[in-house]
Design goal:
Number of helices: 3
Largest sheet: 6 strands, mixed
Bound molecules: inosinic acid, magnesium ion
Strand content: 35-45%
Distance between the termini: 12 Å
Helix content: 10-25%
Shape: globular
Number of strands: 10
Oligomer: single chain
């Protein structure tokens, strides 16, 4: 199904030295419907319960994982679990001068993770740099186990060696939006995952 979605953006008008707000229209072709996502979230929650994590702290990586986190936490509740929740805001960028990506912590978690099992959540695992950084950080702080759950995984795109323990969908190598994922800060609100046409 193809959806017509309106989003706000702003363009810089140099001559007047101001941003001009605009409405732009995107055609988004659905890859995974809200129902398909919902079924995968329930299945992942069951797998997580079966992993028998102890003193569980869920750490959701902002911004992209917010919708997955909200759905997964309620699914974990339905599985009879009662995890604590924290958010970490990471920013990753490629430095043109070296062939490595850099990750910085924009907002850290507040809880002590020492001796606890941690479940890291993100929207998508691509190069793996963001989640490898977060996993190393939490392990270095003394977490017992750090497991990874991602809504999407793009196979064969890894720049570092890391695999997710729980995956919603293995998706084709396309730029996807919706269900928390954005294109230039737009379209995070879509309840489905799609590709901008
Ligand atoms: P990586 O695994 O460190 O390369 O980075 C993954 C992050 O890049 C995700 O958390 C997303 O924020 C972003 N990202 C990667 N692929 C896509 C995409 O197809 N659509 C939207 N964001 C993406
Ligand atoms: Mg992200």
């Amino acid at each position: 199904m193809v959806w017509q979605v309106f989003a706000k953006t702003a363009i810089w008008i140099a001559s007047s030295g101001a941003f001009l707000p605009m409405n732009i229209s995107h055609k988004v072709k659905s890859l995974y419907s809200a129902d398909q996502i919902g079924s995968r979230v329930e299945a992942i929650a069951e797998d997580i319960r079966n992993a028998e994590l102890r003193d569980l702290l869920v750490v959701a990586v902002l911004k992209g994982s917010f919708m997955f986190a909200a759905d997964l936490l309620r699914a974990l509740h339905r599985q009879g679990m009662n995890p604590q929740v924290e958010f970490v805001h990471l920013s990753s960028y490629l430095d043109g001068t070296v062939s490595q990506g850099h990750v910085t912590v924009l907002k850290d978690i507040e809880s002590d993770v020492k001796g606890r099992d941690v479940l890291l959540l993100d929207d998508i695992l691509e190069s793996g740099r963001t989640l490898a950084f977060a996993k190393d950080l939490l392990s270095a702080r003394g977490a017992s186990r750090v497991l990874l759950a991602v809504m999407l995984e793009k196979p064969n795109k890894r720049a570092v060696q890391i695999e997710a323990d729980f995956v919603g969908f293995r998706c084709p190598d396309l730029f996807v939006v919706g269900y928390g994922m954005d294109v230039a800060h737009n379209l995070r609100e879509l309840p489905f995952i799609g590709v901008v046409e």
